[in-house]
Every structure is written in C-alpha cells, then in structure tokens.
Amino acid sequence: MGIDREIYAYGEAVLNKLAGRFQQIDEIAEYNQLKVVKAMQECQISEACLLGTTGYGYNDLGRDTLEKVYAKIFDAEDALVRPQITCGTHALALALMSNLRPGDELFSPVGKPYDTLEEVIGIRPSKGSLAEYGIGYRQAELRPDGSFDYDAIRASIGPRTRMAAIQRSKGYQTRPTFSVKQIGELIAFIKDIRPDILCMVDNCYGEFVETVEPGDVGADMVVGSLIKNPGGGLAPIGGYIAGKKECVENAAYRLTSPGLGKEVGASLGILKDFYQGLFLAPTVTASALKGAVFAANLYEGLGFPVIPDGSESRHDIIQAVTLGSPEGVIAFCRGIQAAAPVDSHVSPEPWDMPGYDARVIMAAGAFVSGSSIELSADAPIKPPYAVYFQGGLTWQHAKFGILKSLQSLADRGVVDKNSLPL
Ligand SMILES: *Cc1c(COP(=O)(O)O)cnc(C)c1O
Q1: Ligand 1 atom closest to Cα of 318?
Q2: pTM score, two decimals?
Q3: What pLDDT does residue 62 have?
C-alpha cells in the first residue's frame, strides 16, 4: 500500500503508547451505543419506521419517531431531524432565524462564530442575514488562554439579548474546544443573569465524543449536521435541532411554513440510513477520535505543534497539525487523498475558494460528498500553515490515512524517514 517500513514502524511505536487512551474512547463508545439502542427501544422503532413517505409527508411514522429518538439522546423535549435541512450552516441559520425577532440581539460568549455564520448573522453583509431583519449581534472574546471571559460576558448582556450562541468545537480556529461540562457552567452563568436568554449550542463534530451532550447541561437548543458525527457516515444529507418544544416548533414553522410546521416534509427513502447511521454513530465517532489521537501523537513526536496535544482530553474529532510550510500542508493533504476509497487517484490542489481570504486545499475521497465524518483534511495556504484533519469511518482506515500523510511528507522531503524517533 505504499508505506515504507520505517514509517510503519514509527506508527506502531506511537500506537504502543496509546492503549490506555483507546480504551477510554471505547468505554465512551460503549456507553453511547447503549444510549442510542435504549432510545430506539423506548421509542419502539419498528420495521415500518424505516420506510418513508412522499408528497406532503403527512403521518410519516418513521420521521416522527426518529425525532423522538433524537430528543431522548440529546436530552431535549423535541427535535427536528430532516433531509430538508441541507447542512450544518442551514440548521444553525434555521435555529437562529426562527427563534429571534426584529429588535432582539444575538450574543456569542465564545468569540468569533464559525466562518459561514458570519453571513447568516450579517457580520459580513449578506442577503437575508439576521442584520437585514433588524436583529443585532454582539460577541465577547475569549481570554488569551481560551477560557470564558465572565466579566466581558456579563457586560455584553443587555435588555435586548435574546439568545446566546455557543460553539462547542473550535472549528478552524486555534482556541480549545469546550467540554460539555464547561458549556454547562457557561449556560448556568448566563441563566443566572437572565433566565429567559435562550442558550443554543452549535454541536458540530461534538456528538458522542463524551457521554453527555449539551442538552444534559441546560442547553435550550442543540444543533448539528448529519454528514458529521450523528449520521454515522450513512446519512447522505440532513441536519438536526433538538431542544425545548417551543424552540423546535419555531424552527419547524420556519423550515416549512407557519401553520404547517413538523406535519409536512416527506422523508422519501432516507430513513433507514438516518436510523442505521445514528446506530453506528458512537463507534464511527470513536474511530475518528482514535485517528485524531494517533495523528496528534505521531506528529507531536516529530516536533510539529498539534492542537489538541497528544495527551489532552478530547471534546470534538478535529485535529490541527501545524506543518509550517505550504509544501507541508499540500503533501499532508495529498497523502490523505491517496488513502481514500473514492478518488484516490486524483491529487488535490490549492484554489481560490469563495469566502476565503487565502487559497485553500481540501482532501476528501468520500462516499457522501463533502462528508467530514469520513477521512478528510483541509488547510488554508497561509501562516502558520496548519492542516485540519478529521474523520475516518473505521479506525483502521484513519490509521492508514495518517500513515499515508506522513509517507507523503517523507516522499516530498519535508520529513526524513531515516531519522524518525523510535
Ligand atoms: C461544520 C461546522 C458548521 C457548518 O456546517 P456545514 O455543514 O459545513 O454547513 C458549523 N459549525 C461548526 C463548528 C462546524 O464544524
């Protein structure tokens, strides 16, 4: 498979030290596997739930029951889980737009939100943004060490503040990802100032990484994408919003139409993949996590800065590796691509993607286009030349991809395969 003995041996040496970490990951996966099965059993999933509806989609048993399953798993009163929610950004935009009204203010207590939300909010002007509807926005920056700045948070909450948007994962930033416990403390702090502020958590990449979810610690809405963790690699599209009944109802009225809400929205033939993907999600997430921990330790051992570092606890599946040069990030991404089950024969190139201020390179050879629970990597071609790596439907495949990335760095002279630490 094109991996030199020296590279493979170094990988095995790194792996030898990770048994304890992997066991912890397996224990969390076991707990979450049972959590999912329990929810499915309590909701009495039957064979009929796996079939779908067409047209208006009235009385879609499988869709309505799946939403009950999600509500249980995310400790929520209700949920909206739909193929008509096209991606994570759409799910987040829906949660915001349906629960905010003109004159309200949205507040981010965790600094800058995910890139694509800048246009949703109107930080970067865009058609149809919250700003166009007279909805204000404020953010409190994190402290230099990445922790919450409680004084700044208190000072930012005003009479118009209606919702706090809390992003769990670092996304493409170098701040730490927050644990569910930390998010719970933040929610308690905000609710202590004003109990009527809705707390919405962007849960992208965080599902099933811990045994608790943000709904367990007081979030009013938890939002994510089905082509990340909770789709288990099988969901070919979709997003979810789990939360307070009223919040979910508002979102449903916005997704379909006032008056129609959750009652319409045919599931077509997609439900079996939504259910089976959710069933697989805890172990798929565990595989991706093992890949992230392996990559952190492999590259840390070679002296590259990694976030999180090799021994830190994990709260999402993203791994950043700073390679320090354009050649490094390009070689890394080409190695990941070469390990893919689909499109392994193509070579990714950096290009001027819309919405980014630098060229970006992306490696993805996925069964579901753009799915980032599958093995994937991307990097902006700008200092500090960090690559963001995530996914792997199986640990064995994630391992292969990471070894291929190192092989690619060695082949292009970025790393010397004859001086690897052993
Ligand atoms: C992926 C992601 C999003 C947006 O999801 P898309 O499906 O790419 O639109 C939002 N927030 C975070 C933290 C993400 O990781």
Answers
A1: 15
A2: 0.96
A3: 98
